[in-house]
Amino acid sequence: MNTRVPEARGRVNSVDALRGFVMIIMALDHVREFHHRGAMSFPPEDLARTTAWLFMTRWVTHICAPVFMFTAGVGAFYWLSRGRTVGELTRFLWKRGIWLLFLDLVVLRLVMFFSLTSGPVILNVLWALGWCMIALGLLARLPAGILASLSIAMIIFHNLADSIRAADFGKAGWIWNVIHEQGAFRAGPLLVVSAYPLVPWIGVMAAGFCFGRIMMLEPARQRMWTFRIGLGLTLGFLVVRGINAYGDPRPWSSSISGMTVLSFLRCNKYPPSLDFLLMTLGPALMLLSWFGRFTFSANNPLIVFGRTPLFFFIVHFLLAHLLAIPIALFRYGRADFLWLPMPSMGGSPETYPPGYGLELGAVYVVWAVVVVLMYPLCLWFRGVKERNPGSWLAYC
Length: 396
Hints:
Helix content is 60%, strand content 3%. It has 14 helices and three strands. Strands 1-3-2 form a three-stranded mixed sheet. The protein has one domain. By secondary structure, it is mostly helical. The radius of gyration is 21 Å and the shape is globular. Mean pLDDT is 94; it is low at 1-9. The chain has helices spanning 9-35, 52-59, 64-81, 86-113, 125-139, 144-157, 173-179, 201-215, 219-243, 260-265, 274-291, 301-306, 309-332, 360-387; strands at 121-123, 183-187, 190-194.
């Protein structure tokens, strides 16, 4: 296996490009949450209130979380294939997982709310990534065939548990919120929101780890199989979603005039349904295959962002929030309300000026500004990482 690692470098490049692409797309959704007027009052998937443009602005970003989870698994396989032992992989994943939990509960909370004491405690995507890495540290010890079967089974069959509710478990219901049902619970005086239940994300990351073997194939065969699998998943989505009997807790409907297509595409993300994962991982794998046809320069924005994903994630949140300050000063003459949680993130609408937020077109402008500003910052941080190999920056 070790003798084949150099052959995989170009394929690592394509994974980085895919990850960089979804980082850019992800920033659009987060900028929307900080700046869009509608985000302060209703979710973009609300078919009774949304528009096609707003819905699709949110929908295109659904690819991001599945790609993060899946490519983290691929990355773990690459890390193991470079002469490391499974025990070393376990230790690495556990350390990185614990680091991600800290970032989610402390650093991300600070940049989202400008405070560690106001607003709910949101168990967000870094929380899920961290626990998935900790779980993969154990699961990677299983034979490849068994792990692949378990991960696929979790993805396909987890919707069988949709009828189980946290309330069924009484005081222990918070455990089910963390595992499978998005919801809120109390931890002493704190309101905790489990935004990213862990199942089936654990299966998605484990599937990415197993997929690493396909990424080690000869380039042309690797691209062929990656495309075929991606196409198969996409067609599977159309079939399963079309049958409308299993695969998502929200069946699509034609009851709202003009919204049938959007209803078909509105799949459950929290936790990600089978339909959601087929809809996102299928096109992501086809895109990965397509990226594999190109050779990207080291300073291409896709590669720069793809190799500094954690830094990008944290800092772009901070930039999106900071940019709200001059906009608020210009529009309202004050920005003190920005030190309170936004209505889009669990805050009270009464604490913000009436009609706070920008039109969707202006949100796209702010998104472009954030992405442009992130490029030199990520380029600098990548250089810091490269000059300090083996340091704690390996976990960033």
